Amino acid sequence: MSKTEQTFTPIEKIGRKGLIQKIAEKFDRHGEGMVYGIGDDAAVLGQLSGSHPLISTEIYSEGVDFDLTYTPWQHLGLKVVSMAVSDIIAMNGKPKFLFLNLSLTNKVSVEMVELFYSGVKHGCDLYGVQLAGGDLGAAHKASTVAVTVVGTADTPVYRSGAKAGDAICVTGDLGAASCGLMVLLREKRHFETSGQLVFEPDLTPFEYVVRKQLVPEARADCIDAMKIAGIVPTSMSDVSKSLVSTLVEMMESSKSGCRIYEAALPVHPETRQTADDLEKDIDTFVLYGGEDFELLFTLPEKDVKAFAEQFKDFVVIGKVEPQAHGIKMQTAEGHEMTLT
Amino acid sequence: MSKTEQTFTPIEKIGRKGLIQKIAEKFDRHGEGMVYGIGDDAAVLGQLSGSHPLISTEIYSEGVDFDLTYTPWQHLGLKVVSMAVSDIIAMNGKPKFLFLNLSLTNKVSVEMVELFYSGVKHGCDLYGVQLAGGDLGAAHKASTVAVTVVGTADTPVYRSGAKAGDAICVTGDLGAASCGLMVLLREKRHFETSGQLVFEPDLTPFEYVVRKQLVPEARADCIDAMKIAGIVPTSMSDVSKSLVSTLVEMMESSKSGCRIYEAALPVHPETRQTADDLEKDIDTFVLYGGEDFELLFTLPEKDVKAFAEQFKDFVVIGKVEPQAHGIKMQTAEGHEMTLT
């Protein structure tokens, strides 16, 4: 808990109008491509000519999707931006404008909202996105955040375009975010039974996995590299849910099957170490964990090498097969299992 | 409570994926101006060339912004669409695409969600809007609805353009929605103390005010008439909050003052009758009530007559003055009061 969080100004003290004013000050009302941002009935954007508008929207509930015990407000602000832009990036798009809705309980102070928006600002700067509007409301029991992001794509890439023979690729590594979540939940249980007043666990040995959980980054770098390499994947999605559910969704939409290789799945050493520490099977995280926000995409075989010259942080994990093949994984021991 | 609401299928029985499928079936994935709607990481819209994109987003919490005791799910669905498109209309825009986020508690059944979306569909048809995407999540204690609407405007109208000498106009009548809310809250208190099992009050004498509360309509008809008459207001906003707060916001943004006339404020006879019945001052509703979703706009004097020939359902309630004048109302008794 930071010092700023220790001062508690109730929102009712400055009112909804005062709070909106404080937020609006942090963001440019007339940024690039924007005629008028925060402050009227609706935001007015510049003309989005020449490419397709993309829109994605998501909702996160306190106690279900985020836990304020171990999530600092500024991290939450950054994370919701990353999660939102990730959907636009996964369509081969460029995120441009962000809209944020918050409904807040009276446990939330002006200082906490300011920390949240400093995280949002950080995210906006990171991805070159502008906050263009939103809404603030009250909630009785749990706070909720809803995010809408607008982007553009010259060539949108869907989940549905994978073709038999394509290589299945994934960026970064998998399982870290869900592994980090389990560490945080374990520390929270310790905290709740310890009688301590402040939640200050030593997370040093889990720095990578906790960071992937609290402040994941959307893979804009991969899309930028694809653009430079002149490569358009046949299908793409972000791994916001688990690898398996993302893969199944992609193959079903593409009316295809696939074979992936367990041995090829990218795992960070710390994720492996932490899984051991937690006495959990690594597959729990790698196959069935969520929130990694890596990109899963399919490329014609011929494009793999060309793309690898441009971008280093991806691996081939398998191959698209005809639909009749089913969705299969060859385990490290050489067995074949069906993924569902 | 309708028969459909009496069957309770838990959402977990068909799962998030099953529920999204049920919803998606009701809506066209490739409607006009839409390349791909519900079902991928983001919606892909057709090019919005030639006019400015407008975006507005709002959040509503159960127990704060809506009460499921007296709000049927299909009415809530229709109302959130009306509230959302009202913001686009208030910018002189045409609403086109809708995005809906729901986070739902386990008190919500598949049947309730279906009723909600039948209301949403009704709203979409009413305003010529297409549902293009959204998100479904879980909530522990209270459900939340967040709505984003995308529209376009050739000539956006802001709150800030009012000029001294302009006529201040308002559509329809004021105060009915908040008066209807008070009736519903009174009936809810009766219900809670009565020991009855089903909330079935006789609302016949309050039909108009209750309808304005539960299923308000956005004033697309006014914008259409302005377009036909070739009239662009100097400023405009919807009366989603109270008349006074909308007026103050408009005059502050326009760096202007104004004088309105209490006697000119449009009030429906049933609102007046119900206020008497509730033993409340009518001003409570007309000046300080919210959710009427009428349009407040300013017109150069010369345009008022021309517009009145095209559109009947508005009245002039006052005049824009220089800022130094302040924001004043002349009461029916001839006194002058400052509005804040």
Automatic annotation (TrEMBL), chains A, B:
Residues holding Mg(2+) 4: D41, S56, D87
Catalysis: reaction(s): thiamine phosphate + ATP = thiamine diphosphate + ADP
GO molecular function annotation: ATP binding; magnesium ion binding; thiamine-phosphate kinase activity
Family matches, as InterPro entries: PurM-like_C_dom (IPR010918), PurM-like_C_sf (IPR036676), PurM-like_N (IPR016188), PurM-like_N_sf (IPR036921), ThiL-like (IPR006283)
Record's function text: Catalyzes the ATP-dependent phosphorylation of thiamine-monophosphate (TMP) to form thiamine-pyrophosphate (TPP), the active form of vitamin B1.
SUPFAM superfamilies, alphabetized: PurM C-terminal domain-like, PurM N-terminal domain-like
Family: Belongs to the thiamine-monophosphate kinase family.
Phylogenetic lineage: Bacteria, Pseudomonadati, Balneolota, Balneolia, Balneolales
The UniProt record lists the keyword Membrane: no
Chain residues that bind Mg(2+) 1: T57, D135
Domain (PurM-like C-terminal): residue spans on this chain: 163-325
Protein name per UniProt: Thiamine-monophosphate kinase
Positions contributing to Mg(2+) 2 binding: D87
Ranges where the PurM-like N-terminal domain occurs: 39-152
Binding residue positions for substrate: D65, E291
Pfam families linked to this entry: AIRS, AIRS_C
GO biological process: thiamine biosynthetic process; thiamine diphosphate biosynthetic process
Keyword line: ATP-binding, Kinase, Magnesium, Metal-binding, Nucleotide-binding, Thiamine biosynthesis, Transferase
EC annotation from Swiss-Prot or TrEMBL: 2.7.4.16
Superkingdom of origin: Bacteria
Binding site for Mg(2+) 3: D41, D87, D238
First-tier enzyme category under EC: transferase
UniProt key word Isomerase: no
Signal peptide: none
The organism of origin for this protein: Cyclonatronum proteinivorum
Pathway membership: Cofactor biosynthesis; thiamine diphosphate biosynthesis; thiamine diphosphate from thiamine phosphate: step 1/1
Miscellaneous notes: Reaction mechanism of ThiL seems to utilize a direct, inline transfer of the gamma-phosphate of ATP to TMP rather than a phosphorylated enzyme intermediate.
